[in-house]
Amino acid sequence: YGLMRELRTDGGPCFIGKNFNRWLAQNAVSHKVVNRYSPFENGLAEKTVGGLKASMRLFPEVLRSRYHDSSHWYEVGYFIPMLLQVASKAVRRLNDRPYLGTTPFTLWYGRERRSEEDTRLAMKPNEPTVEDLAKHRNEIQDDFERERYLREPGIRYNPRSLKISPGQKVKVFRPSALPGVGHSRGLLKKPVYTVISQEGVDVTLLEIGKSPGEETVEHIRGDVDAQDDRLCNAVSQWGQ
User: Membrane-spanning regions, if any (predicted)?
Assistant: First the structure.
């Protein structure tokens, strides 16, 4: 499945975690810590740069030995063919890396990179294509997002979720207006009311013992939190 055989790192903090090492052990991936920025461990680029730096360090010594000073820098052109030879040697090494098994893909995954033609020819007739896998992945992601949306509790209270039936016996709760006190603190009024009707957040109530025509209208607040929702539901179910 594209897992590497050996992971070569510089021992950074992201590669020494307990969970990461446990994952490497479960997938049979060996972890080898090498020197940081070492030309002999980190690849051809650093090795080539190291060779060029070593060649550049020789220029003052050669000029000083020939002219006893370092003012004749036009002689640097003499070393340009040598630099080109080093660059061509690096290119040849880079081209030979697939045959030597030292390409970055081989070092990382432990196998040669398969071409697109080989991958398509190796697929079975009934094997799902890349488009089918992407479509299936998107469907799973949509289901996951839908389930997560349904499981997340609402931050604000939706008054449509609190339905009060006509004839139901309820009490009225007045939240406290004091600063620093939550909406769950307040006063629960003693009178018991009968629900006459409900229109959205407006509920028409009639106190028990009073005659028709003395109805009052209470407003269900739409900015209470989840704790107040449970309290309002508990109060609305009183007397059933």
Answer: none
